[in-house]
Amino acid sequence: MSTIRRQRKRLVRGVTDRLLNWRMEENKLGWLLILPTLVVFAAIVFFPLMYSIYLSFHSTSGFGMTLTWVGVENYITLLGQDVFWQSLKNNVLWTIGTVSIQLVLGVAVALLLHKSFAGRNTVRGAALFPYMVPTIVAVFNFRWIFNATYGVFNSILLMIGLVQEPISFFGYELAMGSAVMLGVWRFTPFVVITVLARLQTIPPSLYEAAQLDGAYKVAQFRYVTLPQLYNILVIVILLRAVWMFRKFAPIYLLTGGGPGTATQTLPIYAYIEAYTGLRFGFAATIANVMFVILMTVGLLYLRRYYNTGGTDVEA
Fold first, then answer.
1. Fold (topology level) of 79-310
2. The whole model's pTM is what?
């Protein structure tokens, strides 16, 4: 009897050892498979981030990149500059202005394109046109259309008598508004595509039930469409806010950050410090502050989203 028990124990021990060995081999295989991803992530994300932080604690001179340790001096200098706060204010105005208008306009256009009408597919394709146009082409067209001297838009306004003299759309007062207008025209199609894709997945039975309850169009939008769009709008707002906050090319090509600092945002400020002033350490400081701002706002935004039970809404 004792011999049989010993054999059973050896058998169980052997099976357990083989399972553990197989599990360890499986874990090794798992790590081996994700190793290329980790290497790429470290090379294109982790290393640049760490080097940017390292660079921000140094001052640089010229293209020789001779580094001199200055500690947190760059951060103290940056936070004490009026031009930093002006650039941050411009950044916030640009981001809020473009994202809010893109959101309202994008949802409205998506609702229209969700309706059935002749030529709908052609109109849907045309709605993507601004998103496909290269930024430099869009900017040159804007500068030509809204130019105060020879712009088409000013010519039309003068012709129909709405204004007595050309409007300086790129002057100090209107330059930011013109930049926001360009950003809205250029990037609204992303919101249209995303919202339209979500609209097409809403079950028609929800609208039929709302109609049976006596809900009109406005009530259907309020109690059916909007809750169904909630999750996708949260993601769209987050993505668009992050992307617009760090946009460089549209504003720089349109106004160069001017007149003065009227449209100078933090990316333009960092570019000027790096490639005009050759202060790469200071430019890295600006980039790191932008990163901290985006991370903080993004985390607070997502925390509020999850605390309000956002995931409970059917996606």
1. MetI-like fold (1.10.3720)
2. 0.82
